[in-house]
Request: fold
Amino acid sequence: MYAQLVETGAAEASEKDREFQEKIDRGVRIEANDWMPEGYRKTLIRQISQHAHSEIVGQLPEGNWITRAPSLQRKAILLAKVQDEAGHGLYLYCAAETLGISRDEMTAQLLSGKAKYSSIFNYPTLTWADIGAVGWLVDGAAIMNQVPLQRCSYGPYSRAMIRVCKEESFHQRQGFDIMRQLCQGTDDQKAMAQDALDRWWWPSLMMFGPSDKDSVHSEQSTKWGIKQNTNDELRQKFVDQTVPQAGWLGLTVPDPDLAWNEEKGGHDFGEPDWSEFHEVLRGNGPCNRDRLAARNKAWDDGAWYRDGLTAHAEKRRNMVAEGAA
Amino acid sequence: MDPLVTFCLRMGDTTLILGQQTAAWCGHAPVLEEDIAFANMGLDLIGQTQLWYEIAAQAEGQGRTPDDLAFFRTERQFLNAQLVERPNVDFAHALMRQYLFDAWHLPIQEALCESGHQAIRELAQKSVKEVRYHIDRSRDLIVRLGDGSEESHAMMQGALDALWPYAADLMAIDAVEQALVGIGMLPPLDRVACAFEAETAVTLDRATLAIPGNGHARTGGRTGIHTETMGYILAEMQQIPRSFPDARW
Reply:
């Protein structure tokens, strides 16, 4: 859904680099055919492909509840949402392809475990309320990250994000609406909603990445106009937006240190467990293995399908060639 | 039961169960475009289900909602064709199931565009546009994969062999439909079976696939006789509403 730890590589400042930087500083969008430093290209490929992979893997935790959605309307909405996520994956892969990498290469990186995707999807969706919490919190956090990306210096990415953001805000509303219905429902439903908030709150805060003081790659990305806000700024914004919503729902945010700070005009809040964050990044989250296994199975089981279509296209080409001869 | 209610349940249950089976592919299909396509078809099918259930619930007049019909009936009360409950063995089965369904669904929706019942007519006029798109897609894939590699041909032939006997259940007509035809609520449905035969004969031939020749047919779904997979589908689909019967979602 966004990039947590994108490495930017070292950039050597040449004349071209300086011209490039001036363009960015003037707010000129970089397009696919423009010259760009290798580090910029690589950073974007990594960030956009991670983002695309996150959309693809993100289908799994939510797709987990499509067949069990508790009403026809909720089933339809969830299907539409997961379909949107797959669509986001598709146009983000296309945006990355403009930088000179193929979708097959990116897919191979995901399947081998080499490429990262948003760690949030390595947490399980255990009850129906998790679908509400994922929409409300996870998509809410994603929007915080993505709205600034609409102004990203790279044109194809920026334009993809404009479209993605429109749909994400619908996703967040549907998640909140699931929570609203649960919180206005029976005691069981309300308990389900609180339990989901308890489990998703901290992982959602971690979606913004490590604290600014520990975030090693931010500076160059900011200079290049890829990153617009720091991790901590966005996290603060998310907390300030979400806490009143939780209050309106009648839910308790699971953070004993949470308090309104009049002076800074925002909330003070506790520190996420960064050792957990790094464990999940290292592949040791609750679902890392399951998620990769599911994607690998889909790919491997589908080999006959892809080969079959290629074989048919080949036959058609030969027929046309023979007809022309 | 009122024949109109039965007919609407036969239609709505069929789209619901296929929608349920189709939607399960989300995130697990062979390419991203298929994830999107299957979600999209599932969405259309669930939407059509809601419309069928609204007509059924209204005709029944017992205050049941479309969700009551989906989540609080049991295996023997579901009247879907057996074809759509056949399991997601692999993607070849999913594609073939969809194609055989589409090859019936298009002509019946076209016929229903002339129904004497206003709500059914309107439903069909809306759905037929979606269904035309579905069969364009599934027919194209049947041809390309049937006439593709040796392996894809074998996969599609295997799926056809397994599923063809269930196609008869889509076309099964009994006193229910006859009664509705008799009062002009449904147009004559014989042409649906003819259209299905014509469509599948041409397409399967182009796909170099052979229709199984033993005439073996499985029917019963329309009267609530299902295959062993049906109970599992409902158990999964109905689990939450049945666990919390007083809750609204």
About this structure: The mean pLDDT of chain B is 97.
